Amino acid sequence: ITLLALLAGPYPAGIYSAPARIASAMSNVPIGIFSAVLPVMASFQGENEPIRRLFSHSLLLMIALSIPFALLFYLFAEPIIMLIYGDQYSASVLILRILSWSLIPIFVGMSFSHVLLSQHQLVLRLPIVTGLALITNLVSNFLLIPRSGAAGAAHSFLITEAFLAIAYAVASGSFLFRSRSRTA
């Protein structure tokens, strides 16, 4: 939001800020779920089979939740914005529609990130992924905000969250998908 205000001005920052708060609040859903799953995952240090089972259930749950939420916020962006913020935020409808699609990589990415977070041997991969996502976010913001303002910031956020989900999947893939014979 600060970068958006600096590159495009306070009005686009305000138009982006309102729907960004809604999308951000939705990230509490997987955070709450994974708060319950993380201690169980952490209890299986180095054992990929029980973690793979937990991960599979978690991933399916995240997909089952995120797609309907994304569709809900996309389809009902206008009444949601009007109800919460009023007519003066009508330009935020487009932003919420763009940000609604970020819920899918946010939810799915948390499935992978919590595998990394739960394992001593993987946790050091998190700062690397986060650093690469920061670079992705900065580059996409500097490319998109000057051209598209608040919509550019929303697309940058979507790109960053998609990058994070993919990077978490790559970083946890060797642990999750290695064969059983290599763990014995």
Please describe what this structure looks like.
The chain has helices at residues 2-8, 10-26, 28-42, 48-75, 77-84, 92-100, 103-118, 125-176, 180-183. It has 184 residues and is mainly α. The N and C termini lie far apart (49 Å). The mean pLDDT is 94.
- Share of residues in helices: over 70%
Unreliable segments (pLDDT under 50, ≥5 consecutive)? none
Taken in chain order, the helices and strands follow as HHHHHHHHH
Q: What overall form do the CA principal axes indicate?
A: globular
Structural class of the secondary elements? mainly alpha
Quick one: biggest sheet? none
Mean pLDDT: 94
Taking the alpha carbons of the first and last residues, their distance comes to 49 Å
Q: What is the number of E strands?
A: 0
Tell me the β content: under 5%
Rg over CA atoms, rounded to whole Å, is 18 Å
Q: Helical element count?
A: 9
SSE diagram, text form:
Elements: H1 2-8, H2 10-26, H3 28-42, H4 48-75, H5 77-84, H6 92-100, H7 103-118, H8 125-176, H9 180-183
Helix pairs in contact: 1-2, 1-8, 2-6, 2-8, 3-4, 3-7, 4-6, 4-7, 5-6, 6-8, 7-8
Compact description:
With 184 residues, this protein is mostly helical. Helices cover 85% and strands 0% of the residues.
List the defining traits of the structure above.
mainly alpha; 9 helices; 85% helix; 0% strand
